[in-house]
Design a protein that fits this description.
Distance between the termini: 39 Å
Radius of gyration: 18 Å
Strand order of the largest sheet: 3-5-4
Oligomer: single chain
Strand content: 5-15%
Structural class: alpha+beta
Order of helices and strands: HEHEHEEEH
Largest sheet: 3 strands, antiparallel
Shape: globular
Helix content: 40-55%
């Protein structure tokens, strides 16, 4: 989990920098949802994805609490409850499964460096996982927006 821990540490530094540059900013750190319905898609890899989401949430919440104790005003928005029943393998998926790519210039392409391109051998060509994989569909984006709206309302933000 070292990369997650480093990312959360780096995020804390970024939040501090934002707060220093914009002292009146209303900062909210958005978490990650659980991606997969464990009960329906009970594969070990799927459970690992959800355990990772839980781990990241715990680390992010702890970082937000630490920042607040140090005087940096920041809130945490937790999408896990809102995405319950909307993961991969649920009847109303808000998250994309693996999406075959490439789907544009910014996507993974066969021949990219091996440590960057999640490409699989396929008859006559290699199929790369597109960047849309495991990212929200339109309904998931709307779900994230509702979570953010609730978090902003919870800290008293009324817009500008």
């Amino acid at each position: 989990m070292g990369k997650v821990d480093q990312a959360v540490l780096d995020t804390g530094g970024l939040i501090d920098a934002i707060a220093l540059a914009a002292p009146k900013a209303q900062i909210v750190l958005m978490g990650y949802p659980r991606l997969v319905n464990d009960a329906v898609c009970g594969a070990a890899g799927n459970q690992a994805l959800n355990q990772l989401a839980d781990y990241v949430r715990a680390k992010q919440k702890a970082k937000v609490a630490e920042l607040n104790r140090a005087g940096t005003k920041v809130a945490f928005a937790d999408p896990i409850p809102a995405f319950q029943g909307h993961g991969i393998c649920d009847s109303d998926e808000w998250i994309n499964r693996v999406v075959a790519g490439p789907n544009g210039d910014g996507d993974f392409h066969d021949g990219d460096p091996a440590n960057q391109a999640p490409c699989l051998p396929w008859p006559r060509e290699n199929v790369c996982a597109g960047l849309e994989s495991f990212h929200p569909k339109n309904a998931g984006t709307a779900g994230y927006a509702r979570v953010m709206e609730q978090a902003l309302a919870g800290i008293g933000y009324e817009g500008s």
